[in-house]
Amino acid sequence: MHDSLPGAPDPPSQEDWLRRLADRTSAALFVKALDGRVLFVNREFERLLARPAETIVGRFDLELFPDTAATLRDNDARVIAERRAIDFEETIHTVQGSRTYLAHKFPLLGAD
Question: What is the domain-level CATH number for residue 40?
Answer without folding.
Answer: 3.30.450.20
